[in-house]
Amino acid sequence: MSSAQRTLTVALWFLVVISLLGVLAMQRWASRRERGDSHMIVLNPDQPTTLPADEREPLNIPAPSFSFTDQNGQPFDASMLKGKVWTFCLFFSECQGICPAMRQKFEAVQSVTDDPNVSFVLLSVDPERDNPAKLAKYAAASKADPKRSHLLTGDLEETHRVARAFLIPFDLPVNHSAKIMLVDQGGIVRSFYTGTDDDEMKRLAKDIRTLLNESK
């Protein structure tokens, strides 16, 4: 076999291997999509990849599926919020930046309604230190409604995935978003708010009541 023939043979085998790997990858993707793998996000082509500049512009994007552990050490996943109006935001218990201001204003939002069909989901971006026991202490100090507030912690990679799906990715625990997302009863993110702004929190409280009235 000449040098040119050997080169051609190697190139052909290389193409065959690459093709087989591509087929296997597509089969794996299809399999995960069929069984609704929680790590799989199928984005609508029209879905934005960043938040709009105007916070009053509606989002209407699907909230991602997720599975974490709550402050009581119990499993908590997105399916438990089905049929509820809920909010989502990022935080971590040792935050000395935006979190204290968000926490104070968030307490006021929770007091607007005691409707059991409203839930508040807070996901820690520092899961290495924020174990359930620590989150339970944080929840108590925050006067969080124990029945409606879910402080979550879990795998860091999964945390990044969920944050990205909500269009609020983070780099480091100290560099996380102050945005609060509002999700309707059908699992659609309707709007977002700045958690350190009084007027935005009033708008959030008003929009929560509006969503509750829509279901009546």
Tell me about this structure.
This protein is of the alpha/beta class and 216 residues long. It is built from five helices and eight strands; from the N terminus they run αββββαβαβαββα. The strands form two sheets. Strands 1-8-7-4-5-6 form a six-stranded mixed sheet. A hairpin with a 5-residue loop joins strand 2 and strand 3. Helix 2 (99-110) runs parallel beside helix 5 (198-214). The longest helix is centred in the N-terminal third of the chain and has 32 residues, at 3-34.
Structural topology:
Elements: H1 3-34, E1 61-62, E2 67-69, E3 75-77, E4 85-91, H2 99-110, E5 118-124, H3 132-141, E6 149-152, H4 156-165, E7 179-183, E8 188-194, H5 198-214
Parallel strand pairs: 4-5, 5-6
Antiparallel strand pairs: 1-8, 2-3, 4-7, 7-8
Helix pairs in contact: 2-5
